[in-house]
Specification:
Elements (H helix, E strand, L loop, with lengths): L8 E10 L3 H15 L5 H22 L9 E9 L3 E8 L7 H4 L16 H8 L2 E7 L3 E9 L4 H12 L3 E3 L5 E3 L1
Antiparallel strand pairs: 1-2, 2-3, 3-5, 4-5, 6-7
Helix pairs in contact: 1-2, 2-4
Length: 179
């Protein structure tokens, strides 16, 4: 898309929910339902689903440090663009990340129970085109995920069907056959 043209928002959704692990599944379902509108491949949908799962899990597990409160909230905004790209923002108002660069290093974790591997940001980066993190101590963290999807699945399917359709041709001796 030329730089002079601005991409246009096709659809957008904002939602919020309590930061409890039971809502991690809900976040994946919501985001995948929105992304599916773009006629993406199963693989692309799985990539986004995995990245969302990691981002929301980080908010649920680390942002509020296990302190349950009705005020502990995860916010998600999904924006779909006409150039087949998406921007997904996951935000919390938790404790914040003191050292973002270090937190994004593979295997780095603040978890001392041994239950967390420290691979959340690395997984997000492997499945998305861009991952941006902003955080302020005591104010929370915002994770921005971006991805551009391949050509529309319906266009790919139509092209494949066109190529796979047998045609009838006459041979040099005048008989018809399938080519």
């Amino acid at each position: 898309m030329p730089k002079t043209m601005r991409k246009r928002i096709v659809n957008q959704l904002k939602t919020e929910f309590r930061a409890v692990s039971e809502n991690e599944r809900l976040s994946r379902a919501i985001v995948c339902a929105m992304i599916a509108q773009m006629d993406v491949t199963v693989e692309e949908l799985a990539d986004v689903r995995c990245a969302i799962s990691e981002a929301v899990t980080n908010a649920v597990v680390h942002a509020y440090r296990g302190q349950e409160s009705p005020r502990n909230t995860v916010y998600i905004m999904i924006t779909l663009y006409d150039d087949r790209s998406t921007k997904i923002i996951i935000r919390d108002r938790g404790c914040g990340i003191p050292d973002i660069r270090r937190a994004m290093e593979p295997l780095y974790t603040t978890d001392d129970t041994g239950e967390r591997s420290g691979m959340g940001f690395a997984i997000m980066q492997s499945f998305m085109d861009k991952v941006k993190v902003k955080s302020a101590h005591g104010k929370g963290t915002t994770v921005e995920l971006r991805k551009t999807f391949s050509a529309a699945l319906s266009a790919q399917t139509a092209a494949a069907e066109t190529q796979a359709v047998p045609t009838t041709e006459k041979s040099t001796d005048g008989r018809e056959g399938i080519a």
